[in-house]
Amino acid sequence: MVFNIKDSQEREILRSFPREVEKKEHVWIPMSDGTKLAATIWLPKDSLENPVPAVLEYLPYRKDDFTAIRDSARHPFFAGHGYASIRVDIRGTGNSDGILFDEYLKQEQDDALEVFDWIVEQPWSTGSIGMFGKSWGGFNGLQVAARQHPALKTIITLYSTDDRFADDVHYRGGNILASDMLWWASTMFAYSARPQDPEVVGEGWKKNWLDRLENTPPYVQEWLRHQRRNSYWKHGSICEDYRAIQIPVFAVGGWQDGYTDAVFRMVENLPNAKGLIGPWAHEFPEVGTPEPTIGFLQECLRWWDHWLKDLDTGIEKDPKFITWIQEPVLPEVNYESRPGRWVTDRSWPSSNIDYQELSLSEGKLTINKTEEETIEVPSVQEHGFYAGVFCPFGQPGDLPSDQRLENGKSIVFESAPLTESTDLLGHPYLKLKFSSDQENALVTARLSSKAPSGESTLLSWGMLNLNHLHSHEKPERLEPGKVYEATVKLDSLGQKLQKGHRIELAISPTYWPQAWPSPKPVNLTVYSGENTRLQLPIRNNSEEEYQVSFEKPAIAEVIEKEVVREETRSRNVIHDTIKNEWRLEDFSDEGERKLLQNGIIHGSKNKNTFKINAGDPLSAHICCEWELTIGREDWKTKLLTTSEMTSDSTTFYLTNTMIAMEKDKEIFRKTWKESIPRDFQ
């Protein structure tokens, strides 16, 4: 992931604000157990005479180097408009004390509550607080909101989830998300082991670093010990009790992001929430791709001013839900822009949505009901290599390729050319009557739009661990040959279907590397007829439309940097025809840059390799490698990590190795090995 600001995007750069801003660096916030958290605070200079509300961003990604560029675009903006904008490194990360033992621990929430207590006591504080953040910062904003601290009045959560088990980088539809579980664990394995800055914390940095290196665990071990929905995953999943969050929530998503589904659920279930979904990947909407970007920081100010300053900014009159309906496009692995239009809904579920059902017959999707037929769906282990990444960050190569490359490896059903254009908004569903020849099985479904010229653009996909048919908490073996019924929920979409295009539905019991393969090759039998059908969410525009307009994107002037090494990206699918081995090599050199404000030089490289042999699900192999550098001219550190995952029919095998170097000399090396039984995976 790249925490940077693209210079090429058009936006207004603000160098002055209504209130003059001062930056307080290396502020220490004491915890009750003696731990100190590192904070940077941007304040209006007159805040002692005119106290202000506070907004907090609370992350593990190192405020003084790794996110310093992006932080400088956002926090001074809020401060200049009358807020104390606070950026805190989570315990065990950046310059904060301690070790980060896992994501979203209770300790993380407890510390946030103590940060609130500290803020309330400051002479510049009015005692009203908001939280904002994307991804990790969006997750913990929701989790902390459920703790109901009286000073926390509202949150803005971007690209986050309410469900840590079924809608994050660990398990999707009850399946191991093979493309991302190990990758994200390997990322945090390396990120969390980086050292403190000796210029900030003093001589104790080395002792703390060695402690982090020795005791920061590979998180994947704990994640893989919990292969079903249990108390481990319920912790931090606000869907367990939406009523715990009583404060207003502004939930933001993007159609290219991996967490868009949660916005629909939060708008539906939280007592005081509004939702916004644009065309973006996993990045803030004022700097995200693809275009159009929006004046999102101005929208945040409207939200903060209303809920933290009691000003009438019109927020309460805004629609409940604003979404971007994308125009049809031919498949590309990245887009600079996605044409479309904003639409609004007064509630979700919306009276604007009707479901249209399409029946399946041999190779066809039809609006007419069909007689029951048996359709055989075989295993092709290399199906899925052209799916793109689960959660795009806007890098070249992130998006799905032309699905004609996949369709020969699955069973495809195709509609007649559409006689009129249609808008889709919401979740497609596949109702499926099936049987399996194995006790353990999964099913995946892809929904695509086929152009008259033949190109097939992936619109949505979903997968279901069929052993989790009735429960993610209590999976059961399938009885081979027995007929079951399942519902596969595909990812949400906001998409116009073009007249003359065809709808494609593809079904398969494999989807590598998104889903870890079943232990044995699976052959599914699908029974068409009234119990097997595709449901599409048709937007009928029955409500009166609210005219949506956003200001031009504006940010504060970002800090100066010197590019030491440029970014590069490659993503290659390789087929060894002799071994019949398929391999995806995904390499990202995120470059190296020097921050002129503090002299820190930091960079990263990441290579992920996914391999499988045709016909052999037990040949699945993932290797994730990281190289992280951080230092100055006279202080240089490097981390090299390797994380691997394989399996046999009964067991998963994990190997994680970390090497640390100081001034090109190895000072630490350790390997963690773990064997974990398969649990209906």
From TrEMBL:
Domain Xaa-Pro dipeptidyl-peptidase C-terminal: 301-556
Listed GO MF terms: dipeptidyl-peptidase activity
Gene3D superfamilies the record matches: alpha-amino acid ester hydrolase ( Helical cap domain), alpha/beta hydrolase, Galactose-binding domain-like
Record flagged with keyword Hydrolase: yes
Family annotation (Pfam families): Peptidase_S15 (PF02129), PepX_C (PF08530)
Keyword terms of this UniProt record: Hydrolase
Protein name: Peptidase S15
Source organism of this protein record: Oceanobacillus picturae
Lineage: Bacteria, Bacillati, Bacillota, Bacilli, Bacillales
